[in-house]
Each structure stands twice: as structure tokens, then as C-alpha cells.
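Protocol step 4 of 6: structure prediction from sequence.
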Amino acid sequence: MEPRWLKDVCRRVLWPGCLLYVVFVSGPASAIDIHTDPEVIVQNGTTGVLQCTFKSSEVVTKSTTVTWSFQSNQPDHQYFKAPYVIYYFSNGQGYPANTEFKERVQFIGDINKKDASIQLSPAQFSDNGTFFCDVKNPPDVTGTQARTELRVVLKESLPQSSTVIIIWAVCGALFLLVIIAVAACFAIKVLHNRHDYEGAR
């Protein structure tokens, strides 16, 4: 039978010590928060920018890594079934994968500013699909990778910006005012001529 004092030691010292170890030493790693644009629309043959930023409670170091993957939305594409890595950044260096993106993908972000963006130049119709950005900043290694839907379209299919719409609206309004002014001048001239004609009679 164990002495009572031994049970007291286990209950008052060992158990609290084990609990503190679990909480402060072997607890879960911090989560990293990754953000991308939900959708990017790019004209075929131009440069497409895929932005990716992240938030981490840890200082960025050479151990920070960035992985960009791609999954096509075209059934006949080789990357349709599952995402494939197209670019890997580690230890301050970028490593394009030996794929169709090798000569077109470029890292344009700044890891120290927590920016992991890339660009595709030129963008092609075969790039239509989902791009995944994953960042690891040890010990911040848990978190959900962010995703961007890329749409490569013809110039005619590009959505017009609000600025263009406003310009067209202003031009349309000015054109309408000119038409109204011309019509008013014409009406005044007709009335004036009629008045002169009636006065001459």
C-alpha cells in the first residue's frame, strides 16, 4: 500500500506539472492566416498577378516557405484531377516546377512584408482553374491554404471598371445636353421667324 504522503505529492506536484507541460510545451502550433483574391480575371496574352498575403505571429525567417499549386478546371488538362505544385519558395530562393509554368511564373512578393504573390506572363487559356497559395512560417505551420479562381478571357469579355462606366455616363449626359441645346435653339429660331413673318403681314 502506497504511503499517503506519496499520493499527496503526486496530486499536488506531478499532476499540475504535467498539465503545465501540455499547455505550454506540447500545445498546438500557432495558426497562420493566408489571404488571396477570390477571383482574378485576366486578358489572354497579358500578365496576370495572383496576390497572396499572410499573417503570422512569428518573425519571418529563412525557414519560411511558400508553395503555389494549380488545378485546372478543364477535364482534358493534365492537372485536372488534383493540384500540382508549380512554384516553391524557400530559403530566399524561388524554384519553378518543371511544368508548363516554368518559363512563365515569377515571384513578385516580399516575404519580409508577408507578401507571397506571383505573376504569370503571358497568361493562357490553359491557365483557367484554381491556384492555391500555402505558406509555412515555423512554428506557424498550421492553417488553410488560400485559393484563387483564375479566368483567362478575350479582351472583349473583360468586365468594364466602374471608372469606364462613369466616363461613358458623363459623355452620354453631355451629348444629351448638346442635343437638347440644339433643339432649343432651333425651336427659338422657328418661333422668331414665325413672329417676323406675322409682323410683316
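Step 5 (inspection) to follow. Residues 1-28 form one domain.
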